[in-house]
Amino acid sequence: MAVNINTVYQTVLFILNKEQRGYVTPAEFNSLAAQVQDEIFQSYFPDGNQVNRQNQNNTQNDTEFFNIFKNISYKLAPFIEEVVFSPTAVGSASFFYPLSNATGLANRSIYNIGDVVSTYIGNSNYDSITQLVSKSDYNKITRSKLTKPTKQDPIFYTSPSSLITTATSSSLLNIDPTPDSVAVNVIFQPSTPFWRFSTGPNNSYVYSSGSSINFELDVSEQPNLIMRILKYCGVIVNNPTIIQAAAQDVQETSINEKS
Asked: Which DSSP symbol is given to 3?
């Protein structure tokens, strides 16, 4: 469930205005909203890695609803999707890239790729997990008769999508042997949140719910969003009290979630 952007904005304004501490315009808020959502999204990966180490040491709480690693995975689940990649020629090489009309690609870009499954159709059909290697290693492996990849054990490397104009991903995949089809487990970046408005009486800002874009983070992140935005608002209105209070709250919340 997404976090309503108007709820966050109105809460931020209420806290700032309660003691006449300043005002943040919609343009300023939208910039901060995008920055903070990205910070929280990016934090899931190092946090998940840290908690996973606790799992390996058997120091993680495994009680239902209180397992931190599962909670982080739950927050990431809406951004994970299997996407079909299609072939395209770039010079003498054949790359695979996600179609622009694939589910989820209309408004979001791919943040990272996970498992790449290459499908080979012939006398023997294979659905093979494809190993990621560097371009240098790819060249060495494919040129050697002893190490040349097979349909059971294919390899791939990535190249920037700037090589072609039809790609929407940050990476293209060069796979050997060339498969008949490719399915990739990807993580999408959240859509950029945006508080839109129309002009009301006395040039006031009137919230436009139909054209606004909510935060795509889990609803449990609403307090975190508010406090992190307030931290930056303190910089805008030049109030160190807000910065200190918000930063302390964010730090305490982070410590509590990981301990």
From this structure: B
Whole-angstrom distance, CA of residue 119 vs CA of residue 211: 41
β-pairing, 181-188 vs 110-120, is antiparallel
Total-model pTM: 0.78
Confidence at residue 165, expressed as pLDDT on a 0 to 100 scale: 44
Strands 80-90 and 93-98: antiparallel
Peptide bond into 46 cis (omega under 30): no
Q: Where are the chain's structural domains?
A: 5-75+192-258, 80-188
141-180: pLDDT as tens digits: 999 989 999 999 999 998 875 444 444 445 789 999 999 9
Distance between CA 75 and CA 223 in Å, rounded? 15
CA distances from 256 to 59, 60, 250 (A): 15, 14, 10
Q: For the chain, how long is the longest CA-to-CA vector?
A: 77
